[in-house]
Amino acid sequence: SQTIHQWPATLVQPVGSPLSLECTVEGTSNPNLYWYRQAAGRGLQLLFYSVGIGQISSEVPQNLSASRPQDRQFILSSKKLLLSDSGFYLCAWSTNFQETQYFGPGTRLLVL
Amino acid sequence: KQEVTQIPAALSVPEGENLVLNCSFTDSAIYNLQWFRQDPGKGLTSLLLIQSSQREQTSGRLNASLDKSSGRSTLYIAASQPGDSATYLCAVLYTDKLIFGTGTRLQVFP
Fold first, then answer.
1. Which residues lie below 8 Å from residue B51, measured CB to CB, with a gap of 6+?
2. Tell me, what DSSP letter sits at residue A99?
3. Are residues A59 and B97, on separate chains, in Cβ contact within 8 Å?
4. What are the pLDDT digits (tens) for A18-49?
5. How far B65 CA lies from chain A's nearest CA (Å)?
6. At B85, is the secondary structure helix, strand, or coil?
7. A87-94 and A102-103 as β-strands: parallel, antiparallel, unpaired?
8. Chain B within 8 Å of A56 (Cβ-Cβ)?
9. How far apart are CA B100 and CA B94, in angstroms?
10. Does B98 reach chain A within 8 Å, measured CB to CB?
11. Closest by alpha carbon to A95, among A25, A23, A31?
12. What's the average pLDDT block by block, 10 residues per block, for chain B (110 residues)?
């Protein structure tokens, strides 16, 4: 069966520090991978998606970047965090765009 | 602009009641519509997926309907239980993008 992992589960970082969140998927090959952010009181916002290694599409201009160095690994990064980067970050995978997405447990990021 | 709206934002009911959660979307050119459940501080769990050609899907006590022409979907929860307490999210798939509503926070008390 397929599983999706995210770490860390919780992160507190100062403004201006770098960020690296990792997501890995097991039990499937060549998945679509997604990064979402859920801010307090707001819906999920798609940040990035990837259909293959090295292929990243960005949905909104922002302080973040994403990379997919391996088929089942998706990384969310920032060189310098902003207060507005605080939120709940969710990684998801699907077999293709038309199938359901399966979500990881999320990472709660607090930027102080 | 493609938007997804959920009403009500929050709902508190006694155990045993039948519930209806509403979802509306502005662009009817959808591929599918999904309902998710999110427990506090957790990821999302897929509940039901309705393809654009379908009218409804059922899973246990859950039934989701889709009226694409009017841009609406409802999630019906029968005989609610305290374990149903969570936030329920509606998400509409357009081409290659899943647009989420802001959710309905449901509390079922004993």
1. B31, B32
2. S
3. yes
4. 999 999 999 999 999 999 999 877 788 999 99
5. 17
6. coil
7. antiparallel
8. no
9. 11
10. yes
11. A31
12. 91 96 95 94 92 94 96 97 97 88 95
